[in-house]
Design brief:
The model has no long low-confidence stretch (mean pLDDT about 95). The chain has a single domain, classed as Hemerythrin-like (Four Helix Bundle (Hemerythrin (Met), subunit A), Up-down Bundle). It starts with 14 loop residues before the first helix and ends with a helix. About 80% of the residues lie in helices and about 0% in strands. α1 runs antiparallel to α2 (about 35-65) and α2 (about 35-65) runs parallel beside α4 (about 100-134). It is mostly helical. It binds fe (ii) ion.
Length: about 130
């Protein structure tokens, strides 16, 4: 299992973005630490959270990119789209088979690894650019 604790190395330095990331981390962390039985009950809530809050968070970042004429907008947006694609696959799996252990594991692992990867590279680049323009 991948670790999902927030730590300072994940900070981008743009407060609004960091606050939203922290919220996502804390929600995923809560899920990861539940018993298998409770996870089954909470996974739907998690999926709804991802489809709601995370999508809103993407929009917030994308608005910044547009407002500040960010040169890597297409690349960054594409990563968001890739996440949404994975999300749709997970949602489909959930609707088809319900909260199976494999599906729960898949959701946790995909969300966690995507988040780390995306924050550490893509969001940090964006934040550095935004700070240089502030
Ligand atoms: Fe992003």
């Amino acid at each position: 299992m991948v670790n999902i604790e927030w730590n300072d190395s994940l900070e981008t330095g743009v407060e609004i973005i960091d606050d939203q990331h922290k919220e996502i981390f804390s929600r995923v962390d809560t899920l990861v630490n539940l018993s298998e039985e409770k996870k089954k009950k909470e996974i739907e809530k998690m999926l709804r959270f991802l489809g709601g809050y995370v999508v809103e968070h993407f929009s917030a970042e994308e608005e910044y990119m547009i407002d500040f004429n960010y040169p890597e907008y297409d690349f960054h947006k594409e990563e968001h789209m890739q996440f949404l694609k994975s999300y749709k696959v997970l949602m489909k799996e959930y609707k088809k088979k319900g909260a199976t252990p494999a599906m729960i594991n898949d959701t946790q692992n995909k969300v966690i690894s995507w988040l780390y990867d995306h924050i550490m590279r893509t969001d940090k680049n964006l934040a550095a650019f935004l700070k240089s323009r502030a």
